[in-house]
Amino acid sequence: MSSSGLGTSPGAVGRVAFGAATIAAALLGLLGDARWFAASGAFGAVWWAWDSLADNVFGPMVRFLADSVSGAGAAEEPPDLTVDDTVRLLESHLASNAAPRHVQIQSALRLAEIYRLNKKDDARAEDVIRRVKEKWPDAPELARFERGGDEVMK
Asked: In this prediction, what percent of the chain has a pLDDT beyond 90?
């Protein structure tokens, strides 16, 4: 962009071209031919449509595509969750019958990990695994806990 603030983007080029054509046709209409007023109105309508499309359709689409290619659009900060927030979230996954099977199993595994490592509560960790094994005894993700407890994870 130049220092005057007028960019050379396609949107800016279209605005200048259609704006100049609108003004030029209006001035030519003042010289005596009324058809130039109609042309000025047509150029003005195209100028307005171009401006609207450039701002509301093409601009966001180009930014989206550029962010997708560069990866800038995917850089979203993760939420600031405490361990207690995470425990509440995972417990709600386990309590919900609407959550899919794999979500509940993964939630149970993460929750058992948190109870064991962060909270130092092996009994609660084993209880979480027991509850999810009661729901899905054939889950291959829980096969490591077959020996009664979770010695493998310690």
From this structure: 14
Give the CA dihedral 119, 123, 128, 130, nearest 10 degrees.
Answer: 160
The amino acid sitting at 104 is: Q
Q: What is the mean pLDDT of the chain?
A: 82
Query: What span, in angstroms and rounded, lies between the C-alpha atoms of 104 and 96?
Result: 8
Residues with Cβ within 8 Å of 137's Cβ and at least 6 positions away in sequence, in order, are none
Structure tokens at 108: 């149970």
Is residue 142 within 8 Å of residue 112, measured between CB atoms? no
What is the DSSP secondary structure assignment for residue 71, as one 8-state letter? Answer: S
Contact criterion met (CB below 8 Å) for 133 and 145: yes
- CA distance linking residue 87 with residue 81, whole number of Å: 10
